[in-house]
Amino acid sequence: EVQLVDSGGGLVQPGGSLKLSCAASGFTFSGSAFHWVRQASGKGLEWIGRIRNKANNYATAYAASVQGRFTISRDDSRNMAYLQMSSLKTEDTAVYYCTRHSGYYDSTGSFHYNYYMDVWGKGTTVTVSS
Amino acid sequence: QTVVTQEPSFSVSPGGTVTLTCGLSSGSVTSSYYPTWYQQTPGQAPRTLIFSTNTRSSGVPDRFSGSILGNKAALTITGAQADDESDYYCALYMGSGIWVFGGGTKLTVL
To answer: Which among B1, B34, B101 has CB closest to A115?
Structure first.
């Protein structure tokens, strides 16, 4: 079964740091790209950032609201993606979802990206409060 | 900063047809933005409905369809059912790896 399991959420003080984890199973992790998306209580979805695969130099991209404070990384040997959050603000309080960027291997074994997120974790809750 | 716009709420009668839209604060939505639609029920993670404007994700009923209508992306539900009552989000690809979600539409079926 294709699955993402987000973890690592909790209560942190403003200005603090927290690292979220995303454990993947059921598919070839190394070829995939991953995003983080968050949702404050009663609010909409907000895209935070994404990391591509080794063939694309693990390139990252971030939303302006988190640029410079959040860092996405991955460990292909462990099938894990991470979201390191620092200088946290109360407005970072949200449920954080790890998602997979859809893609496929062609007949030659080359990986190609589609343009959407196809698998979602169940989310992990981050509360920034004093 | 580009804002992706959606109707905050919509209602439809059971069996009826409803079209939700996804626009830009400046400019037109085209297929080059790879419009994607997600459905979310309370307490659950989002589920992918439509990607690349009009392609249904695996397992999505054919009463859901996507298109470009005028200068917006659109999600049409034909023959709405009670369990279609959800929040619907569109997402647009802005280039350079950046995605932006719309504010979401709360759909009521009554």
So the answer is: B34
B13-26 pLDDT per residue, tens: 999 999 999 999 99
Minimum-distance CB partner of A44 among B47, B89, B93: B89
- Return d(Cα B35, Cα B88) in angstroms, integer: 13
d(CA A44, CA B1): 17
Residue A59: closest C-alpha in chain B: B97
Instruction: Name the minimum distance, in Å, from the CA of B15 to any CA of chain A.
Output: 27
Query: At residue A26, what is the residue type?
Result: G
Q: Does B10 touch chain A (CB under 8 A)?
A: no
Over residues A38-69, the pLDDT tens digits come to 999 999 999 999 999 999 999 999 999 999 99
pLDDT-derived band at B28, boundaries 50, 70, 90? very high
Q: Which one, of A119, A60, A68, A70, lies nearest residue A94 by Cα?
A: A70
The whole-angstrom distance between residue B79's C-alpha and the CA centroid of its chain comes to 16
